[in-house]
Amino acid sequence: MSSDASTAPHAAPGRDIDVLVLGGAGVDTIVYVPELPLPLADSHMIGTGIVTRAGQTGDFVALGLHRLGLRTHHLDLLGADPEGDLVRALHREHGIALTDVPQPTGTKRAVNLVGPDGRRLSLYDATRGSDTDRLPPEIVRALAARSRHAHVSITQPCAHALPELRAAGVTISTDLHDWDGRDAYHEPFALAADLVFVSATALDDPERTLRGLLARGRASIAVATDGAAGAYLLTGPGEPLVHVPAVAPTAPVVDSNGAGDAFAAGFLHAWLAGAPARICALHGSIAGAHACTVPSTRAEAIGRDALLAEAARLGVDADVDAADAAAAGGPGHGARHVRIEG
Questions:
Q1: Alpha-carbon distance 16 to 241, whole Å?
Q2: What is the side-by-side order of every strand in the sheet holding 171-175?
Q3: Which of 114, 120, 226, 278 lies deepest, with the highest CB count within 10 Å?
Q4: Residues whose CB is less than 8 angstroms from the CB of residue 12 and which lie 6 or more positions away in sequence, other chains included
Q5: From CA 330, how far away is CA 235, in angstroms rounded?
Q6: Given CA atoms 226, 237, 220, 315 in this order, what sign does their dihedral have?
Q7: Within the chain, which residues score under 70 in pLDDT?
Q8: 278-289 pLDDT, tens per residue?
């Protein structure tokens, strides 16, 4: 398989959802701290304020996909609590379809400490969930039957939904985040997905990890994102590893929160339209760079016109439209003019 190959799914009758996002709904409390690690002290004065807003990994992926014009539906467990109300309000505000399943232990929440350089430390509330949590199979089946693709967050209930997605015939992507390449918890997601994203942060050897993913699992494409160092793309067991340089943000970097989710959304937008893998990675890099210019206190994503304008400025003409591709009957039909220069 060529390093520019695309294995995006063909559209099918009745598939009125481009991407079904599973899991990853929740609320973050954002605290900008003077430095990380935070020095031990009785107290720290926070002059920027402390903000609680809806938006964890699934929310940000869904928002990013929606802003890029993809028909997106989000499915997760939410509590009947103020945090759940914030998540529901976020989806209503942006017009993103949401199916929420009652969660007795409450909506997922976290505290993000963000340093001056944009790095973050996340503290997750482990009480907001149970090993018995499940997404109802009948709901997963019904939504999957309407979907072209599913993006699966690595939250515990989603692992149990993977067989239902496979049976429905949708392609699957997942983001393993800061996986170390060994933790067994991530393996069901890593091995079931057709397209795998992972951060290089905890990887000793990103290339070895990507090749292992393609050799052991179903994935035909694996991507390791590496912040300012760019990303690494592998499109087949015998293919060379492709380095995708980072895209310089168009505004000052204030926060890295959500950059990986934005990368996944940008990549999927191009991939579902049948674009070559390197163009998909460029779209992901543009979306990720934009996310770094947005404070964690806001839930915001790059729009399709802005992404394509930045791609054109960089010398890549990649006018892709997943909705057009679906209407035309398959990948590639929406990629009207794809060219890589330089």
A1: 35
A2: 97-102, 72-78, 17-22, 147-152, 171-175, 195-199, 221-225, 231-234, 242-244
A3: 114
A4: 148, 169
A5: 20
A6: positive
A7: 1-13, 316-342
A8: 999 999 999 999
